Automatic annotation (TrEMBL):
The chain crosses the membrane at residues 597-619. Signal peptide: none annotated. This is LTD domain-containing protein. The keyword Transmembrane helix applies. InterPro entries: Lamin_tail_dom. It comes from Podarcis muralis (Wall lizard). Keywords: Membrane, Transmembrane, Transmembrane helix. It comes from the Eukaryota. The keyword Protein biosynthesis does not apply. Residues 277-298 are annotated as: Disordered. Residues 94-226 form the LTD domain. PANTHER family: LTD DOMAIN-CONTAINING PROTEIN (PTHR37397:SF1), SI:CH211-183D21.1 (PTHR37397). The lineage of its organism: Eukaryota, Metazoa, Chordata, Craniata, Vertebrata.
Amino acid sequence: MFLSQALDKRCNCGVSPAYFKDPAVACQGPQLVFTAFLTARSTEQLSSLLEAFSLLIESKEVLHFGKWNGTAVKACLRDANMTDRPPGTPVVVPERTTEATPLTELLINEVNSDNPGGREDTEYIELFYPGEAPFALQGYWLVLYNGKNNLAYKVINLSGYRTDERGYFLVGSTGVTPKPQIVLPDNTIQNGLDAVALYRSNPNATYKMNMPLTNVGLVDALVYKARGSDNADKLLAVLAPGQRVLLEDDSHSSQDESLSRCYSLRPRDHSSFQVTEMTPSQENACPPPGSNSTEETPQNHSVVINELGMANHTILYRFIELKGNPGVSLKGYTLMFFSGHNAIPYSTIHLQGTFGSNGLFLILPEGQSKTIKPHEQRVMPSVWSNPSLQEVTHSVALSRHALNGTMEEHLKDVAVYTWETGASQAHPRLSEPIHFVSREGGRPLSLSRCPSCDKIYAVSDPTPASENHCPQESLFLNLEICLLTPNCSMWPQNPQMLASLQQALVRSMEESCFCGICQCYLHGVTFTCLNSTLKVSGQVWARSPEQRQRLVQWHSHFSTSPHPFAVDGKPLKANAACASLGKTAQRSEASFQAWEIALIVVGSIFLVLLLAGTAFYCIKRRPQNYTTIELNDRCEFMADF
């Protein structure tokens, strides 16, 4: 778990514990050696992972394994083979191991054999090729066995097909999304006791309907059962010797589930599979290694409020998005909603379900969409009704087992916001900063968790079930503002007044552009005082080119506006001459750089022409080489004459 988090922190490439296959540990003296196969979805992701891994082992960062701590030792990992590997193939770390490295092989990756109720229209079998994709399936056969008579009830020839660019191949019913490459009639895949086997063509075997069990040409197999099924000894003896039959446990969650490959790329290894949420043609929603996906989430899992989708005065939220580890259950977690400074929540939601493969979980009101997607929970819209139109401050708190103790002991995360510009900066009960969200403009906005923010959350565009839209450093705007004030020297010495000044600037930006902006967008703001002029310097980060253009227009209008600028009742006036001077200096510097580049280019062209002319002149002036002219003896010449 910690290793995947450490790698993802360095590469930001979406790595999870499911990327580590066949993990194992062994002791070598005082050192603990961890070995695993590191997989990737693409060549680009593999390169990012390898670079992040190199940075990790070179660092002195302490790694946490449960109650134990350790530091990566360079000498231990110096023999790791991290080069000259085909794109998409497993990376062995370290190279020396007691077991032979398995060859890259087509595998059974996920099986959903039973659907809730009686519809049976979203059954599927997912194959996965961990090497370079797309991969041709020429010569492969998929055989479905009936556990009652141990005969094949369905045989599918895969020749002529290929996996998609991520290595996935889907065989399933009509209701599966995305549409399978091979569509089966509904209720084709039996619920168990049964088996799925993958074969490669072999001259000693013929794959056909009603064929008996065989391991000739067998590549991979999965034997599964329903509750109370008959004995599976014969299926296991032929298809998966030494393995235990798998159970697609329908008590895993209220949603549909599947048997997913999580911990190993070894074929015919049932210990690699876990019961998870169904993820056709997607990365499997695997729980962290060593945990059971059906068990309650341990206390140390990081679950946070990731985004609040704002609505209107009467219904406060369009959606709420949580973030956590992929595949982790939300059992035992509760969302509580507060109004004003009340200590008692006006509404509570007990969460159900698990995080998706992207680590996100959505709570939506009923009726917003007809289709319920995986990793979502629906609630009645009345749950989010504003209990008091007079209150302008609202809070959302995420807790765990809050009913068994005080809220502070079990509080996991809190988001506090206000509609009012003059509200206090911190909540008196929750000790959290209060974020201002403007209602002006009428456009939908979200309060999104952003790593670039000192105050955690930023006002942004709504992005449910996808990456938050946060301010970016690459879209910065230099903030150069001069303000005239009678007593300039008091400003840099008063932090409270400077904080009020930043709030006033943000409020001015929002009133001008209606583009959803807050103090999180300000970076590196400094204040200097010269006589009666207070100079504000820093940067404003935008989240889109359009928002940056609006901020540029605000900056231009603000610097030339004749109207006073009030901060806590104190009038300030923009000094246009100071702002123009800064702009002129910037233009002069840019102009000088342009002339400098132009002179370099012209000089280079002149030098090339001069060298060419000199070479041509030297060639013309050089005397001809007569050493090849034949000279005859005079006597021979007279004799010839």
